[in-house]
Fold each of these.
Amino acid sequence: MKYDNEIISDRPMAGVAVRPIKRIPPDKAGGVQGVLANRPAAVASVDVTPPTVTLAALATQQLTATLRDNHGSLTTGAVVWSSSDATKATVGSNGLVTAVATGSATITGRVGEFSDTCEVTVS
């Protein structure tokens, strides 16, 4: 019996974008039979909100990254956050921006090759 790349279902679950579900051969599933692989769909776009923010020094702002697959459906992924100038604004691994000193910085949320930004002005 051949299992490799046999598609069982390609319909996404409600509210979750998924790649086609494939049967895993028992010899590749640690001897467990009937195991299905259900993986999140690949990220095709990142949308960071809000796109701009003005903060007083030491104030914080939570940013959110919305990830979508190539069909526009919501999906999941690990967002890597970074600041163009940490002397003006920093960002934590959860997207929380902290204003440091007067000036501006660009905060980037990235998943693989896809990214979006928020322009932060510290007054």
Amino acid sequence: MSDKPAAAQSKDPAFANRASLDCTEAADAQRVASRPADGGIKVISATYGGNCQAPDGNATKDLDLQCGGSSSCTYKINVVRLKDPASGCAKDYRYEYMCGNSSEPIKGFVKEEAGLGSYAVLQCKSD
């Protein structure tokens, strides 16, 4: 932890995004330790609010950061972290990924209002 007081931390850019992440350092360490030899989850794309004309792929980087390389991942769709790409519209969440060396993409969908605490579950089967 930091020696800075909480008020100073909230204004310090180094701490600005840290509080908004759902993943703890312990969970990150566990995720890294559980990465399969074949590379696990390979995120192709993720779009938050495509049904509201939000840009395709606008959530790909965040999904990859949270889940890429893991054998399984439960990803919390959070409007605070993803930002609101289309104000006043109930946004869905669409994602696509592959597992390890597979050439078959897996698609997932979470219905409208996805950013209010819904989860996307990405799972690669173990052989």
Amino acid sequence: MKKIFLFLTLGVLTSSVLVSCSKDDEQDPIIGTWYLYSKDNIEVSDCLKKNEITFFEDNTFSNVYYGEYDGECFKGKENVGGERWKDEWKAEWEKEGEKKYKVITETDSLKEEVVFKMNNNKELSIILEGSKVIWKKK
């Protein structure tokens, strides 16, 4: 009887430790790679779906940027349409509240802050230049 009680007690303690550890180690749902999905409720082209944002645990993120010009898909600065885009960059993010995140980017001439809202653990939305943009988790 004492052995059964001992095993039950150890089982309960082990379960408590595992539950508390897994809760502490729980990863923020924004961590991972996201791709551009839609703008103003219209699904974007396959080229624009190559746009990716990857959020890392160290509160940095990186972006790979694609654009279209004259029916062709270009990665960042390869665009020949006169507009020059940086094809990849890294910046910082911070959590502002429940399912709300701020990203801070800085380019040669611009410092920008954008707020992402997580609709669920598989979609991020932002309002960017008056348009609603949705990113989906890969």
Amino acid sequence: MVNMTPNAANSRVPRGTSRRSWSAARGFLRLVVGLFLLLIAPLQLAIAIYDQAHHGMGEAVDWPNWTGWVMALCGIGVLSRGAGLRRSGRQKMAEIAASMVNDGDHIFLDASTTAVFVAKALKEKERLTVVTNSMEILLELSDVSGWNIISTGGVMKEGYLAFLGARTEEVIRSYYVDKVIFSCKALNEDLGIMESKEAFGTTKKAMINSGKMRILVVDSTKFDQTAFSVAGQLRDIETVITDKKPSEKWLNHFSAHKIECIYPK
């Protein structure tokens, strides 16, 4: 079942421009404008200090000095709006994923930011068994009672709150769960599900091979991208949850592989 409700924002896409490229362009422009406005504040502060030093403490502050701070606040607002949109998209995807989990299920959650959102959305469920290689998810679920929380253990990779390596994969393969809920760095029609680092790819491949139902939760910016390591093929999953309606090409591709595609209305 594919939700065919069009995204209202698509009506604002300029003629001749794809929805994905337009969305990426808007995000990049928002980042550039926000950073530019934030950089104004230190410059205006320097001007204010210079003016006070050379013209006396009693002088009125020239207009660029206070407008710089206004611009900086606007920059923070622009960047915050972009972050808020990303959080909103992940939250909606997480809620959809959580709705597919039943009380008493055994599930895998991978070490991704999206999976942390799913973990938060699952807290109303009862008697879940959650197996994860994510330290962040272990901490997030540490206050939940009545669940069985299992850490894969393994080697903690520097710069990531994730357990990886042969020991992690061995533990994953020792279980067989009802649902595997995971994300990825890139989704490619020909190459499949991809990760930026081999250790993450092999860990997710072990999860994919150890679950009854595989649910990929991935935002639209990852479509038609590539990354270093192949974690699996599209034929390996049953469901894709994303933040907006995919292109007709992807909808047809999912349909050909009998993959259910779900996205917010």
